[in-house]
Specification:
Blueprint lengths: L1 E7 L3 H12 L3 E7 L5 H11 L1 H4 L4 E5 L10 E4 L15 H18 L4 E4 L4 H12 L6 E3 L2 H16 L6 E2 L2 E3 L5 E3 L5 E2 L2 E2 L6 H12 L1 H9 L6 H15 L16 H6 L5 H13 L19 H19 L14 H4 L6 H6 L9 H4 L2
Parallel strand pairs: 1-2, 1-4, 2-3, 4-5, 5-6
Antiparallel strand pairs: 7-10, 8-9, 10-11
The chain binds lactic acid (LAC).
Length: 365
């Protein structure tokens, strides 16, 4: 159990995440912070009053400033506006970048040792903003998207197969949006490849529905976006960190070089270090999608294309926002090192590239 976890943003995602964190007793105190007066206090008090019924002792407190959050070991950032029907996550970038920038400054000041888990959209860019502004090591700034996308994919598959969600093993990588890559070739039903059970057209439909999983809900709700599954995904990640469960979970993380290099340079909080190191080796979810700096086609091998696109993204965004503390931008991976990266379908998918054309994953795109 942690001593203190803070959730920034008392909207639907933040408040539901706080409630789930408290119910699972993942910290002694959960602090809910929001700028709207009374809302975090009211929601926190309501949640605390459910404690005797639900049987948890985690104190939930609400605040409009970051003083009560001081010293938090983990901060979940959900602050920002949500999509309306017809909007893409990228349409939120200006407004939410300002909000996340402000929140990140507060985190840096009040919670200098925290692990930051970003949820605000567009997710990949907001992670980058949080990392730049806090100046925290990259192992301490991660984003939630892949766990949610994977959950949606598994739910749709379970429905199509009339099977338990527990028996569907899957992994969705790539950006949180159009560049999402559900990995069909790594998807199994009780260990048996899903392609034994479902036809290509059916799988194609499920992949497409997964990509639009968030938008489908926005279209129903009209005034907001999903929050039950997103908050559950947040809590799964927090739980993996708190209990150092050594889970392999997809997430947004800033990568430099290959997995071995990354592992060698770890200086993070031990649980996250282990989480990140294991995850990063096999599950690379690059800050790409919303960076809008697609791969620069060079005619070189796929690995170098993938990383060239990422390097372009880093430079593009770097111009728009330097770290508040004057730190230099993270080094983009050089093309030279890129050519040494593995070319497995997983690696390519993680870089946001389409898998090779003979892979089942490409068939489903
Ligand atoms: C969604 C939001 C949380 O996908 O990005 O529902």
């Amino acid at each position: 159990m942690m001593n203190k976890i803070t959730v920034v943003g008392a909207g639907n995602v933040g408040a539901t995440a706080a409630q789930r964190l408290a119910e699972k007793a993942l910290a002694r105190t959960v602090v809910l912070v929001d700028v709207i007066e009374g809302v975090p206090q009211g929601k926190a008090l309501d949640q605390w009053q459910s404690a005797p019924i639900e049987g948890f002792d985690t104190r939930v407190v609400g605040a409009n400033d970051y003083q009560p959050a001081a010293g938090s070991e983990l901060v979940v950032v959900t602050a920002g506006i949500a999509r309306k029907p017809g909007m893409s996550r990228d349409d939120l970038v200006r407004t939410n970048a300002e909000i996340v920038r402000h929140v990140s400054r507060q985190i840096k000041q009040h919670c200098p040792n925290a692990i930051v888990l970003v949820v605000s959209n567009p997710l990949d860019v907001m992670c980058w903003v949080a990392k730049q502004v806090t100046g925290f090591p990259r192992e301490r700034v991660i984003g939630m998207a892949g766990v949610l996308d994977t959950a949606r994919f598994r739910a749709f598959l379970a429905e199509a197969l009339d099977a338990s969600v527990e028996d569907i093993q899957a992994m969705v990588l790539g950006g949180h949006g159009d560049t999402m890559v559900p990995l069909i070739s790594y998807t199994t039903v009780a260990g048996i490849p899903v392609t034994h059970f479902l036809s290509k057209p059916t799988l194609d439909k499920i992949v497409e529905r997964t990509r639009n999983g968030g938008a489908e809900i926005v279209a129903f709700l009209k005034t907001g976006s999903a929050y039950y599954a997103p908050s559950a995904a947040v809590v799964q990640m927090v739980e993996a960190i708190v209990h150092d469960k050594k889970r392999i979970l997809p997430c947004a993380a800033w990568l430099q070089g290959d997995g071995r290099g990354h592992r060698a340079r770890q200086e993070a909080h031990p649980p996250v270090r282990r989480l990140a190191a294991r995850r990063v080796r096999s599950v690379r979810h690059v800050l790409r999608g919303a960076l809008q700096a697609g791969p620069q086609r060079t005619g070189e091998d796929p690995g170098s294309e993938a990383v060239a696109g990422r390097a372009g993204g880093a430079q593009e965004i770097g111009r728009g926002g330097e770290g508040d503390d004057g730190r230099s931008q993270p080094q983009a991976v050089s093309r030279k090192s890129a050519t040494h990266l593995p070319r497995s379908p997983l690696r390519l998918a993680a870089c946001g590239l389409e898998p090779p054309s003979n892979s089942p994953d490409s068939a489903a795109r």
